[in-house]
Amino acid sequence: MSTIPHLVIAGGGAAGFFAALAVKAVNRALPVTVLETADRVLRKVTVSGGGRCNVTHACFEPAALARFYPRGHRELRGAFHKFQPRDTVAWFAARGVPLKTEADGRIFPVSDRAQSIVACLTREAARLGVTVRTNTGLQAARRQPDGRFALALAGGARLTADRLLLACGGTRAGNGAQLAQTLGHAPIPPVPSLFSFRVRDEHWCEHWQPLAGVSKAPVTVSAGDWRQTGAVLITHEGLSGPAILQLSAWGARRFAAQNYHFTVSVDWTAGAGARAQFLRCRQHAGQRRLGSDPQFAIPQRLWARLLTSAAIPADRRWRELRKGEAAALTRTLTVSQFQVAGQSLHRGELVTCGGIPTREVDFRTMASKLCAGLYFAGEMLDIDGVTGGFNFQNAWTTGWLAGTDMAAI
Ligand SMILES: Cc1cc2nc3c(=O)[nH]c(=O)nc-3n(C[C@H](O)[C@H](O)[C@H](O)COP(=O)(O)OP(=O)(O)OC[C@H]3O[C@@H](n4cnc5c(N)ncnc54)[C@H](O)[C@@H]3O)c2cc1C
Predict the structure, then answer these.
(1) Between the chain's N and C termini, which has fewer beta carbons within 10 Å?
(2) How many angstroms is it from 117 CA to the middle of ligand 1?
C-alpha cells in the first residue's frame, strides 16, 4: 500500500480548483485528484459575469468585505484576513492574468473574457500535476476505521482518500448535501438567493408593465426587516435591478417561507426628502408644469406614471400644487407599494442560500468539526454573497484555506 497520502476533491468548480492549486503550492509532491461529475470543469466560471467573469470585488478591508454576505459574514471575516481580494488579484496577475477594477468596484480580467480565468486555472493544474477526472462524480463516501475515506465513483470505480474536500457547489442540484449527510453533517435546505420579484397586484399589468425597461437609481426598496438602496429596473414581470437582487439575498429565507408573497415598498427618491424639494420647485420653478418637470432624476415615463398614481394632472403648475396633492405625491414617491407574488431567477448571477451550516466547520482551516479529514469549500457551505464578485471570492478564500490545510498532512 502506498504511504504517500492521497487528497481527493469532489467538484471541479472555482473552489475545488483553487483548493487543488493551494495544496500544490504547499507540497507539489502530494497527489491530488479533482473529481467532476460533468464532462468539463469550471462550467460556471465560463458563463459567469455575462462571459466576462466578475472574479472578485475591490473591497480590501475584511470587516467591510464580510458585510456583502447575507450568510457567512461572521465566519468569512476571519477567513478574509488570510486570503482576500487583494490576494486573488495578485494570484491571477502572477500567473499572467491581470485583472481590472470597474467604477462600481467589480473586478474582471483585463481581457474581459471568463475564458482567461478558466485557461489559467486548468493550465496551472496541468503544470502542477493535479489529476482531473471528468464524468467521474463522487457517488458515495464512507469514513473507514483507519480514518481514510472509501470513495465510490460514477462508473463503478473506487478510490481511497486520506483527506476529502467536498466542493460540490450549491446544494439545490447534485448529491453534495447527501454526501455530507452520510458523513455526519446536517445541510440547511437550500432556497434561491438573488432573484427578481414578480408583481401581480391589480394595477401591475395596466399601469406598470408598459414601463418595462425603465430603470432608476438610486431607489430605496424595503420588505420585512430589510432595506437596500441602488438601481431598480421595471420588467415585464415585476421589479429587478441590483437593489431588488440584494433585497432578495438578504431576505432569501424569509421570502421563501412566505412562498414569495409579501409587500415591497419603493422609495423612488431614495430618502432625498420630497417635501423640501416641492418647496424649492414652488419657489424657483412655480410656473413649470409638473408633467414636464421630473424630479429626483426620475425618468419621464416613470414620473408621468407616479403623477397619475397620485391623481395629479400633468398640466398642474408647481405653484398651484395643493396641500393634499403634495401629500399624495410625497406618498407615491416615497412609499409605492407592490404585492410580490413569486420570484424569477436572475440569469446573470444565481447563487444558493443554504448548505453546510457554518457552525459545523472550522473556518481557520475549512475542516469539518464532525468528521476528521473532511473539508468543505465554496457555495456548498451556507454562505452566499450579493452580486459583484463576492461569490467567487468566497470560493477562492475557502478553497485556498482548505487546500492549504489539507496539504499539511
Ligand atoms: C450564470 C451565473 C453567473 C455567475 N456569475 C458570477 C460572477 O460573475 N461573479 C461571482 O462572484 N459569482 C458568480 N456566480 C456565482 C458563482 O458562479 C458561484 O458562487 C461559484 O461558481 C461557486 O463555486 P463552487 O466551486 O463552490 O461551485 P460550482 O462552481 O458550482 O462547482 C461545483 C462543481 O462540483 C461538481 N459536482 C457536484 N457534485 C459533485 C460530485 N458528487 N462529484 C464530483 N463533482 C461534483 C459540479 O458539477 C460543479 O462543476 C454566477 C453563477 C451563475 C449560475
Answers:
(1) N
(2) 14
- Bridge partners (DSSP) of residue 264 are 338
> Nearest residue CA, atom 8 of ligand 1?
49
Number of domain units in the chain: 2
Inter-helix orientation angle 390-406/85-94, to 10°: 70
Residue 138 pLDDT > 90: yes
Encode pLDDT of 71-120 as tens digits.
999 999 999 999 999 999 999 999 999 999 999 999 999 999 999 999 99
- Residues near ligand 1 with C-beta < 6 Å? 10-16, 35-38, 43-44, 47-49, 53-54, 137-138, 167-169, 174-176, 349-351, 378-380, 389-392, 395
CB atoms within 10 A of CB 311: 11
Q: Are residues 92 and 37 in the same domain?
A: yes
Domain that holds residue 282: 196-345
**Is residue 268 within 8 Å of 334, Cβ to Cβ?**
yes
**Residue 347 pLDDT exceeds 80:** no
Write down the pLDDT at residue 171: 80
Atom of ligand 1 nearest to the CA of 390: 11
Global confidence as pTM: 0.93
d(CA 38, CA 136): 7
The three-class DSSP label of residue 161 is strand
d(CA 97, CA 256): 39
List the beta bridge partners of residue 337: 265
Picking from 262, 250, 202, 212, the residue whose alpha carbon sits closest to that of residue 233 is 212
CA contacts within 13 A on the Cβ side of 138: 30
Is residue 15 in some structural domain?
yes
Judge if 187 and 265 occupy the same domain.
no
Please tell me whether residues 118 and 66 are part of one structural domain: yes
Q: Are residues 33 and 180 in the same domain?
A: yes
Residue 1 inside a domain? The answer is no
Looking at the fold, whether 15 and 75 belong to one and the same domain comes out as yes
Return d(Cα 254, Cα 297) in angstroms, integer.
32
Check whether residue 207 and residue 230 sit in a common domain. Answer: yes
- For 75, other C-beta atoms within 10 Å of its C-beta total 20
